[in-house]
């Protein structure tokens, strides 16, 4: 975790417009930024299903109040990423098998659309960077690193759309994905199976074959959903 409030994601400042006219941009509250940090840690595999989260420890590490952490927990609970058990505390959620189809429906809608729209050279380079990150992790048999690279790959695909709203939605989806994947990733080869497909999808994107990239990604997501259903016994 970040060691202080300064380590949390920076809010967007208000901007001037036409001299005296001024447009205010919504500034995320500190609680929202704490929730964002915890979502990030879920997506990166730092917090696994069933982990107990304590207000005091998180407040100290992030340099915020316990009330702020409590508000962040409420936000994450509304997203079903954490659960509160009376007299026991707050825990990282263990998602149900029935959630799988919902998550993959969202993924197909936003990821395939984003890749078919192409993107800037910088955005495409970020997709390639995630593929190369995965290759480096695979070379040293770093399965968790490979898992994070896979998350970065899918996040970079959605970022191609240039939409902050879609990026926000995807941050939630990435957290849910990692919660699902923890059960499957006990297989040391789980993430490496995706690496070749990621490379192929990226190559089609780089070549400007956007429909082909979309087709490959759609098929990839269909196979991934089927695999998750099998792992979770659905």
From TrEMBL:
One of its GO terms (molecular function) is DNA-binding transcription factor activity. SUPFAM superfamilies: GntR ligand-binding domain-like, Winged helix' DNA-binding domain. Keywords: DNA-binding, Transcription, Transcription regulation. InterPro entries: GntR_C (IPR011711), TF_FadR/GntR_C (IPR008920), Tscrpt_reg_HTH_GntR (IPR000524), WH-like_DNA-bd_sf (IPR036388), WH_DNA-bd_sf (IPR036390). Residues 28-95 form the HTH gntR-type domain. It comes from the Bacteria. Residues 1-20 are annotated as: Disordered. Gene3D superfamilies: GntR ligand-binding domain-like, Winged helix-like DNA-binding domain superfamily/Winged helix DNA-binding domain. This is GntR family transcriptional regulator. It comes from Arthrobacter cavernae.
């Amino acid at each position: 975790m970040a060691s202080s409030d300064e380590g949390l994601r920076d809010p967007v400042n208000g901007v001037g417009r036409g001299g005296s006219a001024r447009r205010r941009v919504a500034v995320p509250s500190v609680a929202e930024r704490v929730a964002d940090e915890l979502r990030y840690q879920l997506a990166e595999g730092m917090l696994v299903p069933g982990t107990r989260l304590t207000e005091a420890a998180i407040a100290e590490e992030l340099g915020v109040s316990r009330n702020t952490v409590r508000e962040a927990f409420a936000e994450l609970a509304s997203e079903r990423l954490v659960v509160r058990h009376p007299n026991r505390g707050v825990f990282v959620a263990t998602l149900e098998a029935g959630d799988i189809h919902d998550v993959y429906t969202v993924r197909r809608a936003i990821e395939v659309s984003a890749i078919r729209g192409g993107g800037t050279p910088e955005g495409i380079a970020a997709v390639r960077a995630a593929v190369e990150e995965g290759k480096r992790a695979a070379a040293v048999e770093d399965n968790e690193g490979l898992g994070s690279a896979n998350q970065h790959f899918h996040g970079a695909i959605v970022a191609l759309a240039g939409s902050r709203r879609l990026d926000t939605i995807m941050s939630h989806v990435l957290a849910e994905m990692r919660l699902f994947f923890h059960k499957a990733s006990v297989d040391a080869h789980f993430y490496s199976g995706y690496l070749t497909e990621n490379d192929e999808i990226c190559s089609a994107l780089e070549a400007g074959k956007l429909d082909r990239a979309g087709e490959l990604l759609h098929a990839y997501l269909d196979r991934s959903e089927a695999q998750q259903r099998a792992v979770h016994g659905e």
